[in-house]
Amino acid sequence: MEQDARANAAEATFEELLAGSVAAHGHLCPGQIVGVRMALLGLRLMNFEAPPTYSQLKQLIVFIEMDRCTGDAVAYVTNVKLGRRSLKFVDYGIMAATFVNLESGQAFRVISTEESRDLTLTYAPLETEKRRAQVAAYRIMPDSVLFRVQQVQVDLTPFDLPGPTRRKVTCVQCGQVVRDNREVVKDGLPYCRPCAGGGYFSEAREITWEEMNWAPMLPRPEKVGPPIQPESAATGRRVP
Ligand SMILES: [Zn+2]
Ligand SMILES: [Zn+2]
């Protein structure tokens, strides 16, 4: 009886969190189910509630290894946020997330298995459409089929933690301020990552635009004109 009540409560929590995650993400997809369950498992391994209490949230850091549907669900259920530095995105392209307890130092990496994809029809034999079958199957698959779990060591420095900025330096090439020890030192001088050659963009040129003196307290400009092309490129080469 007591076990039934606990199972019902757990299912209610799952359905509630899934509904919230679907609303935040924009649609119900197999990734939402996997992500909600990934977060529930991670939190359970840490002995945290789902969603975490405020004091638990302050001890929680989550690394998400893919920018896919699942990642949104993990972030929703755990309530970690990029802006609070409790959500770390690492671009591995792996369906996995690591849950770190800052207080105990314990960390669990929960990995979605490829086998679970192959077993979809075993768990949802009546569904003919693949996506619907996945949605149905991932609800009822045991955690042991859906996931592998590793206990891992995560080395965080004070520069990775929430709280005020601990260090600021100025890039000697572009003048941009770099926070939290993210600069690259070359020949003893600090550079931002883009200037050090590790940027995701290239050909950067400062532009001006017609309505550039607008602010929210002013009337909306009727239309935003095209960027005014600089006479000559300040930095980098102009794209022809
Ligand atoms: Zn999705
Ligand atoms: Zn720079």
From TrEMBL:
InterPro entries: FmdEsu_dom, tRNA_methyltr_O. The lineage of its organism: Bacteria, Pseudomonadati, Thermodesulfobacteriota, Desulfobaccia, Desulfobaccales. Residues 219-240 are annotated as: Disordered. This is Formylmethanofuran dehydrogenase. CDD domains: LIM. Residues 25-147 form the Formylmethanofuran dehydrogenase subunit E domain. It holds the Pfam family FmdE. It comes from the Bacteria. It comes from Desulfobacca acetoxidans.
